[in-house]
Q: What sequence folds into this?
């Protein structure tokens, strides 16, 4: 089963999850998944001046003779290209209100392109979707504000670290004392291995203070005094006591080193279980995304390629290969699109599989028409669509009209069987297995609407019909 490329490590190589692209039957329900670029009030220019005027009540509302409709259309300083201006001027002669509404829609659309910095509405829509995804992933306005605060705090911590400020260590210790101890110990290890002088500068001041508090210096001074007084036993006893002190330090140091390197079986088991759980959780999440992406992209693909597959007479295996290779190219392009990848990663991190799948499917649907045309032309350069059958014109004298109206059009065998409820049509509660379907007689359109001819199985030689879900 082919696996489409996707957004890298987040999704184990799929578009965001492992999305199978093997051609399976289009799932029931083929609701419109288009992504229109309407120019309604929602895309209005907030700075655009109002053009509302009282409704026309007669000839008295027409512009003066020296003020043409074209002057009205371009009189507020905003520019319109000549072709559009001429078309609006013609419309204004018959319906001034409609012309003004169209003009404002035009300006709103131009403002949309200007704000996004794109040349086409398709590119602008993609840009807006990407920005929306990033904002959603950051938690909206509140999330962005919190992120800015975190960045400011992080920069301050970096400055404190670079300056060697103890304030940073105090803050970290208040939050996690054990973590600071481990980090300091690791830092000393690194200094001891890479910078002995630096190690001495870090350790000696604290070491000297610690030895003084432990009474080492006073003990040495007392030993010296005992020797001067020729009190050998006292000097010896003090040396033995001092030797025990340093021996305890050595043994304690070894024990601490062993504790640092010793593995805790129970802790490792808990970590392993947690890692396994997180892995399974991520796999389940990817599976949810993949299933929804697969469902939506199959519907989109069927809408685009069905007519070609039928006209080209592709057999099931050929259709499968054509669609799989087409999808692979589209997903590869999505994987190479860094802007899309960042947005998809951000949405996926929010933990919403449906929203993530919708974002991926929208991108797929945007790329599908162009990639389909290139893919089709590369594999079938001589293919041309079959001409549409035009019904014969009605005779000028009306002869035969009554007869034609009285005679209903001949129904296709499958339609006639379904309408008449003949034994040739079997209503079933589920979609039959694909291997039992007669693909020579069953089109994609029939399958989408919940019908299929059977070549084998329980209903061989009959047409089955089942209920479809609305999407």
A:
């Amino acid at each position: 089963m082919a696996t489409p490329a996707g957004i890298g490590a987040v999704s184990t190589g799929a578009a965001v999850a492992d999305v199978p692209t093997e051609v399976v039957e289009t799932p029931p329900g083929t609701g419109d998944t288009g992504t229109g670029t309407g120019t309604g009030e929602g895309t209005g220019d907030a700075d655009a001046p109002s053009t509302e005027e009282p409704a026309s009540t007669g000839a008295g509302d027409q512009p003066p003779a020296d003020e043409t409709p074209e002057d009205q259309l371009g009189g507020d300083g905003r520019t319109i290209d000549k072709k559009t201006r001429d078309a609006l001027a013609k419309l204004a002669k018959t319906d001034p209100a409609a012309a003004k509404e169209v003009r404002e829609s035009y300006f709103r659309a131009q403002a949309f392109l200007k704000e996004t910095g794109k040349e086409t509405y398709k590119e602008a829509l993609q840009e807006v979707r990407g920005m929306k995804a990033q904002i959603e992933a950051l938690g909206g306005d509140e999330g962005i504000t919190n992120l800015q605060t975190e960045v400011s705090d992080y920069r301050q911590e970096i400055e404190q670290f670079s300056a060697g400020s103890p304030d940073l260590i105090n803050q970290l210790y208040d939050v996690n004392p054990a973590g600071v101890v481990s980090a300091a110990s690791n830092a000393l290890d690194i200094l001891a291995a890479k910078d002995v002088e630096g190690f001495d500068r870090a350790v000696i001041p604290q070491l000297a203070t610690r030895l003084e508090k432990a009474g080492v210096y006073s003990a040495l001074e007392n030993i010296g005094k005992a020797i001067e007084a020729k009190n050998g036993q006292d000097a010896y006893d003090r040396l033995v006591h001092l030797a025990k002190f340093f021996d305890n330090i050595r043994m304690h140091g070894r024990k601490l080193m062993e504790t640092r390197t010793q593995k805790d079986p129970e802790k490792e088991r808990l970590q392993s279980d947690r890692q396994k759980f997180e892995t399974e959780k991520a796999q389940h999440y990817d599976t949810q995304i993949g299933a929804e992406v697969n469902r939506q992209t199959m519907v989109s693909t069927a809408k685009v390629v069905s007519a070609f597959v039928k006209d080209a007479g592709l057999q099931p295996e050929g259709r499968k290969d054509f669609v799989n290779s087409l999808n692979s190219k589209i997903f590869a392009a999505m994987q190479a699109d860094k802007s899309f990848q960042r947005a998809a990663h951000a949405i996926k991190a929010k933990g919403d599989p449906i929203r993530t799948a919708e974002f991926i499917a929208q991108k797929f649907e945007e790329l599908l028409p162009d990639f389909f045309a290139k893919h089709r032309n590369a594999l079938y350069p001589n293919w041309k669509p079959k001409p549409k059958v035009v019904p014969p014109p009605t005779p000028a004298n009306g002869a035969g009209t009554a007869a034609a109206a009285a005679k209903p059009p001949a129904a296709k065998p499958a339609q006639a069987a379904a309408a008449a409820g003949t034994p040739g049509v079997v209503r079933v509660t589920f979609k039959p297995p694909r291997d039992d379907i007669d693909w020579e007689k069953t089109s994609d359109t029939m399958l989408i609407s919940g019908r299929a001819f059977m070549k084998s199985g329980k209903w061989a030689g009959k047409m089955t019909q089942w209920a479809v879900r609305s999407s």
